[in-house]
Amino acid sequence: MTTSARPDPDWRNPVHLLAFGLGSGAAPKAPGTFGTLAALPLCLLMQSLGSIGYLLLTLALFLLGIWLCGRTSRDLGVHDHGGIVWDEWVGLMVTLWMVPPGWIWLLAGFGLFRLFDILKPWPIGWLDRRVSGGLGIMLDDLLAGIFSLLLIQLSAHLLL
Prior knowledge:
globular, 160 residues
């Protein structure tokens, strides 16, 4: 058991391993932030797919995440265990879709996504409280990613 009395994942189970972001969600403090950081290299690799390929892969990973997160949550007996970070991975992918090149944009996207994911302004928090299961785990991060994406794209439009 972890120090927070939450059950540990079965690291031999590939579903748990993916849901925990290949282990990045096992960080003892701020697992969502560490999970989001771990997703950055994948987001950068995905940019080579072009905007449509990136979007289609993100959609596929979102749909897979509904099942992965729901299954892991049921296995552990904890709704939205803090270590489940697949939703953060997909939320960051949404945020960084068509992001302008440069580290400043990646950092801004990372920061905005974490801000929306942590604060959960309406309707993110409202959905988070009302939708359960794998869809509920994924949906609030999808919305946080969309909000972040919109702010990044608006900023890029105004500044570039």
